[in-house]
Each structure stands twice: as structure tokens, then as C-alpha cells.
Design a protein that fits this description.
22% strand, Arc Repressor Mutant, subunit A, 14 helices, six-stranded mixed sheet, 3 domains, five-stranded mixed sheet, 13 strands, D-Maltodextrin-Binding Protein, domain 2
């Protein structure tokens, strides 16, 4: 039987404490990562280990059997240096710059707690370039605002925030609320390569758009000039928290940000599937924390 020590250790802690929350605190990892690890172990064993009931979680019959065995041999298992399920190697992600710097580091650090010897590298580029890199097998996965399902295996990831108008504090207080009449008198700074910007401009073409190449440039101009910006919260959360930018209320329906993860249909890197499964399960958990 192949043994992944971390997975068994995580299961053992959950069973011991009878709580994902307490076990995550004891292990000093996030609860989503712990839940994912237990799910991986259940899939490997093809057995349910826990059942959820009104009084919390309880072990299944097989879960109790496994816990009792681990309770006896856990120290011996921890002395095994390596195992056949040991995950190592490298996965290369192709990403947009804003997501590389503002979103992905959180998920990569969580992934590293499950697979500490799996190296994740980034290639930051525009959508068209990332497609070319994936076609030429120079990256294993791309994470982007655009679906590539016509060419690759492409999955839409969970995402919880709509786009918003932002402005410098003084300008926002002057505007108070944005409607279509307000937009006629305003300059709107958009990142021209973003899907959100393109959708908004296509839907509302008759306004004054100032197009820039990146989110940091957009943020800088919105701070310094009397203009509006358009962005999802996750990309401007630091500026909102510091008070450099504020959200401006509106009754205009904003486009939703969608994120996709894609790989080649003949993907050769077996670890890429582990990364994709992790993102499919956990993407959005960081964004939820921003809303608290």
C-alpha cells in the first residue's frame, strides 16, 4: 500500500479532535487545505472516512478502523522518509500579471503545505502569448479571464466578487453615486487587455475611456486624477484597505469577473492535475475573506 504521510497525519488529527477547525489550528494550516487533504486520502483509499451529522463529524466504520491502526503505528509511519506517493517536480503556470502578484501567492502557499516538494513557477504574459506557450508545452497550466475550451481542457473556477467602480476619496465624495448621467461627465480608466474592460466598453460605448496597459497603472492614474476606475475587489484590496481608493456606489449593472484554468488535452505533467484539482476546489476562498 502506498502511503502519503501528510495525508494520513491530517486525517489522524481531524479524527483525534473531531473537528476540522481544531485540527487545522493544531496543524497550523488552513481549514480548506485540511479538507482537501482528507478528500485526497478518501479518493486514494476509495473509502469514506467521515460522515457529517447534526452533532458534527463522525468516523465511518472504515474511518474508525483506520484511526485505531494509526493510533498504534503513527510514530513508526512518521519515520518513513519517503514513499511511493511522494509528490515532487515542477508545474509552470501561465498567468496575467495582476493575478500573479495579487491572487495566486495565497493559493500557492496553501498548496505547498500539502505538497511541500512540488515547485510552482510562473510565466507572466498576455492571453494570446499564454495560449502559444501552452500549445508549445512551455507552460503546463494557464489561469486567465478567458476560457480556452475550444482548444484545451478548460474549467471555470469559483469566484465571488463583481467588478466595481473605484475613485480617489475626494473625488468619490464629490460624485457620491454613479449613474449614466454621471458617466457622461467622467473619464473612465480601464485596463485595455482585460475582459472586464472590453465587456464594459462594448456594452456602454459612448463614454470617455482612458486605456492603460496594467492594473497598477490604472490604480496610479485613478489616485492622481479625477477619474473613475473599474476593477474587481481582489485586485485593489490593498488600496481600499489603506484608504487610497474607495468604492463608489452605482445602480449600473457591472460585468462579473470569471476565471478559468486550462491545460492541454494531452497534458504530460501528472502533477498539473493535482494543481488543477486544488484550484477547482479552493479558488474563491481567499476572495471570500476579503468580504469579512
Amino acid at each position: 500500500m502506498n502511503i502519503n504521510l501528510n495525508l494520513y497525519k491530517y486525517f489522524y488529527y481531524v479524527a483525534y479532535y473531531g473537528s476540522y477547525t481544531k485540527a487545522a489550528e493544531a496543524l497550523m494550516i488552513s481549514q480548506p487545505s485540511l479538507s482537501y487533504s482528507v478528500k485526497v486520502l478518501e479518493n486514494q483509499l476509495n473509502k469514506k472516512l467521515f460522515i457529517r451529522e447534526k452533532n458534527g463529524i463522525n468516523l465511518t466504520k472504515y474511518g474508525k478502523y483506520l484511526y485505531d491502526r494509526l493510533d498504534v503505528v503513527f510514530k513508526e509511519l512518521e519515520t518513513i522518509d519517503k514513499d511511493d506517493n511522494h509528490v515532487s517536480g515542477k508545474v509552470i503556470l501561465g498567468v496575467r500579471s495582476a493575478f500573479a502578484y495579487k491572487v495566486l501567492p495565497f493559493y500557492i502557499s496553501e498548496l505547498a503545505k500539502i505538497y511541500p516538494d512540488l515547485r510552482i513557477d510562473f510565466v507572466v504574459s498576455k492571453h494570446e502569448k499564454m495560449i502559444s506557450l501552452l500549445e508549445n508545452d512551455e507552460v503546463d497550466i494557464i489561469v486567465d479571464e478567458y476560457s480556452s475550451s475550444d482548444v484545451f481542457l478548460s474549467y471555470e473556477l469559483a469566484y465571488n466578487y463583481e467588478t466595481m467602480f473605484i475613485a480617489a476619496k475626494d473625488y468619490a465624495q464629490k460624485i457620491k453615486k454613479i449613474d449614466f448621467d454621471t458617466l457622461k461627465e467622467s473619464s473612465i480608466c480601464v485596463v485595455e487587455t482585460n475582459r472586464i474592460s472590453k465587456e464594459f466598453e462594448a456594452k456602454y460605448p459612448n463614454y470617455k475611456y482612458i486605456k492603460v496597459q496594467s492594473t497598477p497603472i490604472m490604480i496610479s492614474r485613478v489616485k492622481k486624477e479625477n477619474m473613475l476606475g473599474i476593477a474587481p475587489l481582489v485586485l485593489i484590496s490593498d488600496e481600499i484597505e489603506k484608504g487610497d481608493l474607495v468604492r463608489v456606489d452605482t445602480n449600473i449593472k457591472m460585468p462579473k469577473l470569471k476565471i478559468y484554468i486550462s491545460c492541454r488535452k494531452d497534458n504530460k505533467n501528472k502533477n498539473a492535475k493535482l494543481v488543477i484539482d486544488f484550484f477547482k476546489m479552493h479558488f474563491g476562498s481567499y476572495e471570500k475573506s476579503l468580504n469579512k
